Protein 1
Amino acid sequence: MSESSSIEPEAARLAAEAVSRIPRDANGPVFRAPWEAHAFAMALALHEKGLFAWGEWSAMLGEEIKRAQAAGDPDTGETYYHHWLATLERMVAEKGATSPQALAQHYQAWENAMHRTPHGKPIELKAEDFRE
């Protein structure tokens, strides 16, 4: 697995078996960017905590992919983890783990932090990032 040293291999294998479209190679899931591995790891952690079953996840992910295709996504595989992240956000909101408002607030905070952070430096959230 690339970019995923903190992901438990057995959990990743089980997820890849349950969600058949996960991009992978002989070693397991493959990620093109660190954020993809983080999104994957968050879903693994929430599954392990019992927030959802893989069958439920797979169905919702399929819905997200179909919605994106209907909106023009060419489904070349490059946007797969964008759909994964959209599913993650939808799942935690629908399950009550957070609210859509909290997700939007954190998204905006990351945008604020990204714009104030020099290129090549780690992005760190600060209290000021949560102010509009």
Protein 2
Amino acid sequence: MNAIQRFPTPLPMPFSKVVRAGGFLFLSGVLPTDEQGKLVAGGIDIQTRTVLTRIAATLAEHGAGLADVVRVTVWLADLGEFAAFNDEYRRHFELGYPARSTVQAALSGGARIEIEAQALVPQVIAPEGGGS
């Protein structure tokens, strides 16, 4: 198996949705969009929930979950929404928070948030004795 696997985005853009390198998954930045790539309307709480739901779904496709996320980078269009973002964010990481950086930036299409994540894929450990 190749040490690096690239999983392209279904969108007509030049990037990978996910790159797997060894036991890690590197997710490209996720915007609060629906399956057709259209921005989801609503406040920072709804947009944060949308992004984290999409991240969880992508991780699940590759055998991981939000509990396996080790680091995120968050871009907020308005740092004045930081507290409201945090209120929604904490609901999604019940088993502990990943390391995180949060910055303010102008985001594509008028989005209020974008999150990029890195996760460790859980290893399946064979039972001792390994035989029949």
Protein 3
Amino acid sequence: MDTTRSGRFLLAASARPRAGVLLAGCAILVAVLGVLFAHRSTADAFDHAVDSPVITVFAGHPVLALRLASPGTTAPAVVVSVVIAVACLITRRFRGGVLAVAAVPVAVGLCEALVKPLVHRTYIGQVVYPSGHTAAVVALAATVTVLLLAPPRPAMPSWLRTLILAVAYLTALAVVVGVIAMRFHYFTDTVAGAAVGVGTVCGLALILDLIPAVRPSWIPRRSAAT
């Protein structure tokens, strides 16, 4: 097994079957919900029950709702992706760097270019299924989760890892609340968006782990004594 930092796998061998199952489950969820809501322009009873209280609570606070949704927009997502990628390069986790750079554009691309045109569910005249905002922020949270499954080198304190994950998940939750409050999406749009984000990261991690490790020329080789 390649144990150099540059060759570290994103997923342990024991985790890859679970990642494959999770990827398949996310794809099935997106497909099933897509069939149920294809070409619809109104909320079903479930979406109405979830969305209405959120919309009511934020009815007088549109600026707050917009700020909650903003981490799922392009600029913040790209900035966070670059920060994660740079951290991976500094620690010589090159597969992680590629995952960080690719996760958001692939997830959002799947939403915008593939699933939305196929399902064509609308909300106030806009095609909304699945939520690209949610896909982006959940893809970032899933990326961070994958990277923290294997402890960074040097080791990161467990409290810091927990804090990073908590911030990532709470940010994803805030985006879900924000896009519902702003009437950008139905709740089930965000569920499908989350599935796209998680499935994208699982799929990319599995693919990247198939690529043989290549040591860049600028990384010195360790002597046998070390």
Protein 4
Amino acid sequence: MARARKRAKKPAEGDPPRVRAREKPQQIADELRRRIVSGELSDGELLGHEPELVERFGVSRPSLREALRILEAKGLVSVVRGRGGGVVVHEPDERMAAHTAALVLRARNVSIADVHEARSLLEVAAVRIIASLRSRRSAASELQQRIDDQMKVIMDPDAFGPANARFHEHLVGLAGNRTLSIVAEMLNEIVVRAVTAVSKRGPSVSSTATRRRGIRSQQKLVSLVEAGKAAEAEAHWRTHMAIVGRVLLGQRAATVIDLMDYH
């Protein structure tokens, strides 16, 4: 007579639902992600080579590789093959956030113009705050340094884009809200690629002339901030950002965001 198969015991009414144990690769990925985000593991740190990690975590090679694939997909590690390679740690940054955001924005058919408008709203609000600070002269000096950095690379569109983004990021950062600063960094990472692409399109003379006009506008902003003219600084920067959207983004402002277009 065949042995009766045991039936799984149903949880009694009111019992807490059973929590299924997470798979080993996910457990390893979660642990490493926690250590990276907490700063326990530093950017650029070598975790080790595959055989060492298999032994350290006490798992099979396929389980370790799956864990690393999870972390690679999030941009938290990279696996360098060959002699002298290994698993390298990467701290989360605005580029990772921008890539994730770009996927969502693309899926929702959001244009670069829309992203630029969001950045403009942040910056215009930041300008009024900075121009009202008691430390506004120090803030103006810091912004001037970012302008000087741009002037050094004004003839090089590839270098100018990131230098220009640093000015915009620093502008929001001076307002003192860290969350807004992180959002601004993410938006800038998206927009700067469009700016660089558009800068390369026209003749170098007109592109350089456009960049010089932008820097003159930044200089005016610094003067208004230093003088504490908050309302004037706000109005000036609102106009500046509107012109940036029209001139630098150009036709790209009507296209759907895809960061791969700007690599």
